[in-house]
């Protein structure tokens, strides 16, 4: 690299994801995870964004019935919770018979769920401060 990069990325802005049925995807993610739906009228029905704060996932319904671009597939989506919200989410999923798996990853605790397209959704909370990574 010839010089120091003159910019700094703030954070991930959004991911783009193809799904088999946009309606089912939105009905699952929007109320369960409390995400805000945003659809820009200038773009029509593609894509539909779901926001958490200032980060988003753009969902595209695959009109050809192929939910993935070739053999490229997103491994998982991760959303960060504070410890209290993480505990409440775990209790909510348990009380409502929503299947999930709890994993302690040492620095993080995680709840894993599958969405209607079988993507892995990771709901995580740190066990340590950023300085302890």
Short description:
The chain has helices spanning 22-33, 83-95; strands at 14-19, 36-38, 48-52, 55-61, 76-80, 101-104, 108-114, 120-126. The chain has 133 residues and is an alpha/beta fold. A 4-stranded mixed beta sheet has the order 1-4-3-2, covered by helices on one side. It has a 4-stranded mixed beta sheet with strand order 5-8-7-6, covered by helices on one side.
Could you explain how this protein is built, in words?
The chain has 2 helices and 8 strands, in the order βαββββαβββ. The chain is globular, with a radius of gyration of 17 Å. The chain has 133 residues and is α/β, with parallel strands linked by helices. A 4-stranded mixed β-sheet has the order 1-4-3-2, covered by helices on one side. A 4-stranded mixed β-sheet has the order 5-8-7-6, covered by helices on one side. 13% of the residues are buried.
Mean pLDDT: 81
Task: Name the poorly predicted regions.
Answer: none
How are helices and strands ordered from N to C?
A: EHEEEEHEEE
For the record, give the distance between the C-alpha atoms at the N and C termini, rounded to a whole number: 27 Å
Give the strand order of the largest sheet, numbering strands 1, 2, ... along the chain.
1-4-3-2
Number of strands: 8
Return the structural class. alpha/beta
Outline type: globular
Largest sheet: 4 strands, mixed
Radius of gyration: 17 Å
Helicity level: 10-25%
Percent of sequence in beta strands: 25-35%
